Every structure is written in structure tokens, then in C-alpha cells.
């Protein structure tokens, strides 16, 4: 079984991206993987803003990434790119923090116009962080995400099969 870290980069407290991240976490745990979950909005804002890369909460997340075989990075599209909070966090990672790891991008967005944000925004920074194995990733249109009567996330059949592919590639 693998150790996997999920980095979820939405600042929103009702975040759809964080809901998807929780769903991914649940799937991986059901398969027996050890999952570390980094919800960036829960990290101390001042550590991110003032680049305190060795504060205890930030250093703990670096340890998790170091121990992981795979890192799944999620972000909503904001203004055509990934979020500012995700950039603030990635800036604090040690040099080549993603070397030797499988990196999986998952992005939610409101329009297909920014489908390529994974390619032009996320993949270059993953590469700078040393990643050489970056999955194609999944772009999710926010309005395709549904909920059941108990508020649990429901994925369309098409999205479910794309997400299952991602989950199994981590295994
Ligand atoms: C500040 C802001 C900027 C956004 N900019 C874009 C954009 O440029 N392109 C796009 O497709 N969607 C854009 N959206 C829509 C979000 O990407 C989409 O609703 C996403 O699922 C929100 O995720 P969240 O709930 O985790 O924040 C924007 C939303 C916000 C709040």
C-alpha cells in the first residue's frame, strides 16, 4: 500500500474542490492507502503570506510529501490559473520536492475555456519542483458535481470513470 498526500488548494469554506479532494481521500483509504490531507485554507495564513517555510505546520506537510509515493494536487481555476494560496504553498516547498513522485493534477472550473489550465499553469511548476511523472489529470466542470439527499458528493458516470482511472494509477 502506498503513502499519498493530497494538497487541496481552494480558499473557499464551501469549496467544491475540497469536496472532490475528500472524495479522493475516501477512495484511496478504502483501497488501504495511507493518506495525508493538506487543506491549504487550514494552514496558518501568516505562514503562507510571510513564507515561513519552517513553521511547524508547514514543516509537517513537507514531511508528508517527502514520505509519499504520489502527490495529488487540486485547485479551482481562479482568473485562468490555479489559486494564489496554492502558489503561496508551492513556493515554500523544498527544491525538487516532487522528484521521484507521481504527481496528479485535478482542477475544477466554471468553464471549459480554461480546460488547459492544468497544462499551462500547473504542469510547469510541478516540473520546476522536480516532477518527471505527471499524470494527464482531470478537469472538472463545477456544475457537473451533484449531491445526494445526505449531502454526499455524486459524480457523473463519465467523471467517475476518469476519477477511478486516477485512483488506480496511484495504486
Ligand atoms: C475568484 C474566482 C475566480 C474564478 N475564475 C475562473 C476562471 O477564470 N475560469 C473558470 O473556468 N472558472 C473560474 N471560477 C470558477 C471556479 O473555478 C469554480 O466554480 C470552482 O469549482 C470553484 O472551486 P471552489 O469551490 O473549490 O473554490 C472562478 C471562481 C472564483 C471564486
Textual characterization of the structure:
GO terms for molecular function: FMN reductase (NADPH) activity. This is NADPH-dependent FMN reductase. Pfam families: FMN_red (PF03358). Residues 4-141 form the NADPH-dependent FMN reductase-like domain. This protein has a single domain, classed as Flavodoxin domain (Rossmann fold). The protein is 39% helix and 22% strand. It contains six helices and eight strands; from the N terminus they run βαβααβαβαββββα. The longest helix has 15 residues, at 16-30. It is globular, with a radius of gyration of 15 Å. It starts with a strand and ends with a helix. Flavin mononucleotide binds at residues 10, 12, 15-18, 76-80, 108-111, 114, 142.
Residue windows where pLDDT falls under 50 for at least 5 positions: none
Largest sheet: 6 strands, parallel
- What percentage of residues falls in helices of 4 or more residues? 25-40%
Instruction: Return the CATH class.
Output: Alpha Beta
Q: N-to-C terminal Cα separation, in Å? A: 7 Å
How many strand segments?
8
Bound molecules: flavin mononucleotide
Mean pLDDT: 97
**Secondary-structure element series:** EHEHHEHEHEEEEH
Share of residues in strands:
15-25%
At CATH level 2, the architecture is: 3-Layer(aba) Sandwich
What is Rg? 15 Å
What structural category characterises the helix and strand content? alpha/beta
The tally of domains stands at 1
User: DSSP helix count?
Assistant: 6
Shape estimate: globular
Which fold name fills CATH's third level, the topology? Answer: Rossmann fold
CATH superfamily grouping? Flavodoxin domain
GO molecular function: FMN reductase (NADPH) activity
Enzyme class: oxidoreductase
Domain NADPH-dependent FMN reductase-like: 4-141
Keywords: Flavoprotein, FMN, Oxidoreductase
Amino acid at each position: 500500500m502506498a503513502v499519498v498526500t493530497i494538497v487541496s488548494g481552494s480558499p473557499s469554506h464551501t469549496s467544491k474542490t475540497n469536496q472532490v479532494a475528500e472524495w479522493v481521500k475516501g477512495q484511496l483509504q478504502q483501497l488501504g492507502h495511507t493518506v495525508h490531507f493538506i487543506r491549504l485554507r487550514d494552514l496558518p495564513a501568516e505562514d503562507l503570506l510571510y513564507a515561513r517555510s519552517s513553521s511547524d505546520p508547514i514543516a509537517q506537510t513537507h514531511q508528508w510529501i517527502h514520505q509519499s509515493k504520489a502527490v495529488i494536487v487540486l485547485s479551482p481555476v481562479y482568473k485562468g490559473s490555479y489559486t494564489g494560496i496554492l502558489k503561496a504553498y508551492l513556493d515554500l516547498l523544498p527544491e525538487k520536492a516532487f522528484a521521484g513522485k507521481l504527481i496528479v493534477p485535478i482542477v475544477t472550473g466554471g468553464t471549459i475555456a480554461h480546460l488547459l489550465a492544468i497544462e499551462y499553469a500547473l504542469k510547469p511548476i510541478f516540473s520546476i519542483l522536480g516532477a518527471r511523472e505527471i499524470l494527464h489529470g482531470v478537469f472538472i466542470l463545477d456544475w457537473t458535481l451533484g449531491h445526494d439527499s445526505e449531502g454526499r458528493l455524486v459524480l457523473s458516470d463519465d467523471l467517475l470513470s476518469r476519477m477511478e482511472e486516477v485512483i488506480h494509477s496511484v495504486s
